[in-house]
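Posted in: Structural Biology > Protein-Ligand Complexes

Title: Requesting predicted complex, zinc ion in pocket

I'd be grateful if someone could produce the 3D structure tokens for the following input. Sequence and ligand are given below.
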Amino acid sequence: MNEVFLVAATVYVALIGLFLGSFINLAADRVPRGESVVSPRSHCRACGRVLDAVDLLPVLGYLIRGGRCASCRAPIGAGQPIVELVAGSTMLVPVLVVGLWPGALIGLAATAILGAAIVTAARRRAQT
Ligand SMILES: [Zn+2]
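-- Reply #1 --
Done. Output follows.
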């Protein structure tokens, strides 16, 4: 396997982790409320504005918007980019340690467990 492919694939795996983190945030927000994780499209809880491509960029969207909704300036919460970074790392670290394919599988399994744990914690928090 050549170096360029390996670097590109590693970056791709990390990006998948970041977007999975973004989905974990969505699920942790919606599942405790009994809402669908598919529809409606992601929107601000405060003003209802549908999020655009910039808002949906993991970590970067949060930084570009200064941690607030672009319309109503409601705070987004630092937990969102942190979960995205953690999920990105959960995908990336196994790839760096054990190599691309076994690492990607381990990372995917670990990220699924992370997501289940975060959503479960959010449900418990919502019940109390
Ligand atoms: Zn808003």
